[in-house]
Amino acid sequence: MPAMKMPGADPAAIAKFEALRPRRPDVIVKKVFGHPAAFVRGNMFMGVFGEQVFVRLSEPALAELGKHPGVRFFEPMPGRAMRGYAVLPATLLAKPRAAGAWVQKSFEFASSLPPKGTGPKKATKKVA
What we know:
There is one protein chain. This protein is of the alpha+beta class. The chain has one domain: YgaC/TfoX-N like chaperone (Yope Regulator, Chain: A, 2-Layer Sandwich). Helix content is 30%, strand content 23%. The chain is built from 4 helices and 6 strands; from the N terminus they run H-E-E-E-E-H-E-E-H-H. Strands 1-2-3-4-6-5 form a 6-stranded antiparallel β-sheet. Strand 2 and strand 3 form a beta hairpin.
């Protein structure tokens, strides 16, 4: 099976990400799939993938966001949606206050999750 080519990060999407991400000392920006993503307590809550800006939300908030036209689940690989993540549509991104409200909900949700460790990953047992 040939390797899937990852899209390059779109400068306009990066600009939207930078305009929307919270400016707080507990928000860390790292690269995921070669694109910027924001984390709080080790949990990713928003990011960029190609031309998309995505957020992580609770199930009720995802259902609420899903009422907006053009919202879809975040799929870094076709057919492989990341559970709990949705792409903010261009119509919503064009409204900074509305998009910012969704980013804030995303930040609050990720802040409520247990922190993820930053130490070395535990070794997993191989099953024969």
